[in-house]
Fold:
Amino acid sequence: MDVATNLYASLIEYVNNARNNFDQYELAAKEKNPNADYKDKFDRNRIRSTRVTFFEGSSETVLLHGKEKFRIDTFIPIIDTLYGHLKNRLVAYQEIHDRFSFLSQLTTIDSDELTKKMQ
Structure:
């Protein structure tokens, strides 16, 4: 079980580092499919009409296109969700490891310590 928790921790670290490697993944994807491009590159921009009260003033709307829109709206939320779920699963594995790790030491542990860990 110790190996599983260590591997899970390593996977979580890898996923966390992957969040900052978007450009690498984009280049690898473009190498595999050079004709692919972002969908909104060919779409025309729509501007939403919004009602603004006198006290609110006009707010600046941020329009993201192509690469940045995909990164912020899709890539980062997927990575963050995966990271959160992996962390939750790691907590469960660590709890199981803490409770039952003594079973892997049955041949080397003395009876008093075994009784203590079983409680």
Q: What stands out?
A: The two ends are 20 Å apart (CA to CA). Residues 20 and 76 are 9 Å apart (CA to CA). The mean pLDDT is 81. DSSP finds four helices and no strands in the chain.
